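Hi support team,

I've been running sequence recovery on a batch of backbones for a student project. Most finish fine, but this one hangs at about 90% for roughly twenty minutes before it completes. I'm not sure whether the input is malformed or the queue is just slow. I've pasted the structure tokens below so you can try to reproduce it. Let me know if you need the job ID as well.

Thanks,
M.K.
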């Protein structure tokens, strides 16, 4: 039997090990190539799936637009189908949400234009007459916008519904997302907007007569010349709200947060402001005739030239309030906190005015000691 020389045996082992290594490298390269191919195939498959999905969304969107454009009472169900299809698209495709918002907003501006003269009582002290309810498709479109999936995103925040007739007495939209919305001159009389978010919204000239805004967030909104007759705003947050020249006659603002609100020139006659927080509020020239301000906090408020005739101020906090030129004839200030003789020296205080103990009537102060008013 031949004997293998040690040197030859070593060479054979080296060759064998080299072949093994090359085989391992080839296997690794094959595996890597397979993985690359698989990844490419997966990406291609995903791209095809995404493309197909986008195509389906586009088809659904086009069908919904066609449905939305159908006119006539007999096509109401078709329009409703289009509205709810668009809502589904917002949920299935977040990137299309801004487009759907724009389409539904345009639908409302086109199909729900506010009447030239909203129905309201001739007597401002009487409850206004509710306007006819908005059509069902209008109510549905507004509801879909109010509950859009991602209102917190900047591109989905602002709704342009200026000049629309959106009276919604038959449906409830609690927690509606209307932040930054443009509702200038819109009519939402008698709508249920309990706990709605209307912060920083443009509500100039809006009609909210008889609306329920209990607990609503109106902080930083612009409500100049708004109509809120007999509206319910108890517990609402109106911090830094601009309400100058607004009409709130008979409105329920009990417990409302009106800190630093601009109510200059506002009509608040007969309004309920009991327990309201009006700290730092601007009420210059406001009409508070016969308003109920029981236990309201008016610390640091501007009340100069305000009409407080026959106003109930029992238990009100008036520390640091400016009452220069205010008409307090017949007002009951007997139970207020923080009122000083200095604060009322330049006010118009009649014989019917009830002042707290220790507060001197301006008429009782010698002319030589009265400040220049």
């Amino acid at each position: 039997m031949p004997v293998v020389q040690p040197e030859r045996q070593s060479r054979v082992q080296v060759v064998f090990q080299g072949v093994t290594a090359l085989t391992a490298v080839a296997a690794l390269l094959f595996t890597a190539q397979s993985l690359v191919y698989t990844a490419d195939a997966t990406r291609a498959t995903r791209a095809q799936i995404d493309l197909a999905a986008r195509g389906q969304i586009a088809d659904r969107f086009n069908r919904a637009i066609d449905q939305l454009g159908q006119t006539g009472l007999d096509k109401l169900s078709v329009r409703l189908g289009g509205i709810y299809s668009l809502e589904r698209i917002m949920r299935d495709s977040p990137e299309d949400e801004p487009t759907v918002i724009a389409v539904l907003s345009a639908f409302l501006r086109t199909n729900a234009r506010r009447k030239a003269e909203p129905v309201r009582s001739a007597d401002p002290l009487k409850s206004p007459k509710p306007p006819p309810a908005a059509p069902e498709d209008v109510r549905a479109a507004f509801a879909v916008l109010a509950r859009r999936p991602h209102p917190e995103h900047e591109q989905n925040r602002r709704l342009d519904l200026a000049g629309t007739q959106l009276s919604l007495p038959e449906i409830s939209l609690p927690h509606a997302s209307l932040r930054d919305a443009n509702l200038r001159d819109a009519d939402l009389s008698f709508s249920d907007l309990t706990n709605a978010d209307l912060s920083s919204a443009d509500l100039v000239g809006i009609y909210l007569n008889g609306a329920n805004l209990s607990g609503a967030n109106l902080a930083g909104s612009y409500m100049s010349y708004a109509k809120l007759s007999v509206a319910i705003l108890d517990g609402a947050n109106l911090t830094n709200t601009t309400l100058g020249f607004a009409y709130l006659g008979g409105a329920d603002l009990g417990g409302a947060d009106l800190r630093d609100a601009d109510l200059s020139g506002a009509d608040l006659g007969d309004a309920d402001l009991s327990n309201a927080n009006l700290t730092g509020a601007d009420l210059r020239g406001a009409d508070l005739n016969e308003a109920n301000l029981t236990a309201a906090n008016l610390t640091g408020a501007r009340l100069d030239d305000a009409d407080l005739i026959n106003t109930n101020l029992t238990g009100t906090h008036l520390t640091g309030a400016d009452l220069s030129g205010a008409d307090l004839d017949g007002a009951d200030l007997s139970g207020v906190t923080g009122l000083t003789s200095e604060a009322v020296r330049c006010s118009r205080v009649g014989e019917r005015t009830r002042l707290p103990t220790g507060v001197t009537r301006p008429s009782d102060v010698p002319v030589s000691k009265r400040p220049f008013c």
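--
Follow-up from support: It reproduced on our side and the slowdown came from queue contention, not your input. The longest helix spans residues 6-68. No action needed from you.
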